[in-house]
Design brief:
Among the domains are: 218 residues, no CATH class; 52 residues, no CATH class. Helix content is 33%, strand content 21%. The protein contains 12 helices and 12 strands. The mean pLDDT is 89. It is elongated. The protein is α+β, with helices and mostly antiparallel strands.
């Protein structure tokens, strides 16, 4: 399949030379085997895609955010329903000491900090389609090593009188001081919203438990979005006060503390049993003493029916009108971005690139996520319907082998015959058969 019609939408943001090089590199990536490096790509690019051309491409300043958006916006505008903005960080292990941005970052796969690179990725997830489309990939700076200062001697304890200290003021919890990492995330969200503009109505930002605090809520609200995230399992939540006003003093905001062992029966929304596990879903409007406003909370309690052991997950949103089932469904869609990271590492070279300078390293990471969107769009084509990424690569590899072999013949067959040969050869390497393809 010719890739020019698919990539022609990038003409407004890429010059003709960069677009031509990108077409060569994408075609090579789809058909190649082995480790994804510049030298490996140059072996599969064919005419017009030498090793030096590949090097020039990865050393070119490319507006990847615009390229990603222009590639997927036509499709997203036709998808019905809401579209979520999700985010997460991906860590790739790298050896050596010279790679730009190298540091020690926590890896959930290894369960400890490892030397490598970290990238913040923001993606758009249509709820009806349930597929993540990465848009922005930014390198995260490694934490600076600050020498620990000697601890000052403790002050002698002073006896304080009862009551509130004189001259103290109420804290305005909507005015928070963001950390450097939180400010970096806020700026990335605002840049993406400016890029999308009014073409999509984005209302929710979905992130993991790293934003499960008041600063995370205020960060998201500064961007004009509502946050969907996760709280600690032992968070101190309080029911709203519903008693009468005593007639003096400020009105109470906090009612009884939420007891997770005895959640109110009227808050139960759903109960399902699968095997030996019963999942009870509770929905409450609660308050937290460190949050500025009430939060919309869903408590998922899983109980093992034979051992009676239980565990819980607390999901929350800053939108009080969001239905409990939508809150659970939207947070579960956050995991779709993990499939982007898996594909980028397994198929598109996020773990393989060996560049050490800043621009080639950033381009290699962005190109890996760019290929995720390319594979999504290609698999929506009628001829690739139902194919996995492995099937797609097998088809393009077969197309490469067939066309290179036919060049040895004295007379090249008709294009219709070439397509039939490609389909036959591609069946040798694919996983799904035509009968099981949707």
């Amino acid at each position: 399949m010719d890739l020019l019609p698919l990539l022609a939408c990038l003409a407004p943001c890429l010059d003709s030379t960069t677009l031509r090089r990108l077409t060569h590199v994408v075609a090579a990536m789809l058909s190649m085997t082995g480790r994804v490096t510049m030298l490996g790509l140059s072996r599969w690019t064919g005419k017009g895609g030498s090793y030096r051309t590949v090097q020039r491409f990865f050393n070119t300043a490319i507006p990847w955010e615009q390229a990603q958006w222009f590639l997927i916006r036509r499709h997203l505008r036709t998808v019905p329903g809401a579209v979520l903005l999700t985010g997460d960080e991906v860590v790739t292990a790298k050896a050596g000491r010279d790679t730009h941005g190298l540091g020690r970052f926590f890896s959930s796969i290894h369960g400890k900090p490892i030397p490598g690179l970290c990238h913040l990725c923001l993606s758009l997830v249509p709820v009806s389609e349930r597929v993540s489309h990465p848009v922005m990939t930014l390198p995260v700076k490694p934490p600076e090593k600050v020498p620990a200062a000697p601890a000052p001697p403790p002050d002698p304890p002073q006896k304080r009188s009862r009551g509130r200290p004189k001259g103290s003021r109420n804290r305005v919890r909507r005015e928070v001081e963001l950390t450097a990492q939180q400010s970096f995330l806020r700026d990335a969200i605002q840049s993406l919203l400016a890029l999308v503009g009014n073409e999509l109505a984005l209302a929710y930002f979905v992130y993991d438990g790293a934003l499960g605090h008041n600063a995370g809520v205020q960060l998201t609200r500064q961007c004009g979005l509502h946050l969907i995230s996760k709280l600690r399992h032992d968070s101190a939540l309080y029911l709203p006060h519903d008693g009468p006003y005593p007639g003096r003093g400020p009105r109470r905001k906090y009612g009884p503390r939420l007891d997770y062992g005895r959640l109110p029966a009227h808050c139960l929304r759903d109960s399902a049993v699968e095997g030996d596990i019963r999942t009870d879903t509770y929905h409450v409007a609660a308050r937290h003493r460190k949050f500025a406003d009430p939060i919309n909370v869903v408590v998922l309690v899983k109980t093992h029916l034979k051992t009676a052991q239980s565990a819980r997950v607390l999901l929350f949103s800053s939108d009080p009108d969001l239905a409990w089932n939508d809150l659970v469904d939207y947070y579960s869609l956050r995991f779709q971005i993990e499939f982007n990271f898996r594909d980028a590492k397994q198929f598109w070279g996020l773990d393989d690139f060996m560049s050490v300078n800043e621009r080639p390293a950033v381009n290699a990471a962005n190109f890996a996520l760019f290929m995720v969107n390319v594979s999504h769009l290609l698999r929506r084509q009628p001829q690739f319907a139902g194919m996995s990424v492995l099937d797609l690569k097998a088809w393009y590899r077969a197309d490469k082998y067939v066309r290179e072999t036919l060049k040895c013949l004295p007379q090249i067959p008709e294009p219709i015959s070439i397509d039939a040969i490609v389909r036959q050869v591609a069946s040798l390497g694919r996983i799904n058969t035509p009968e099981t393809m949707a």
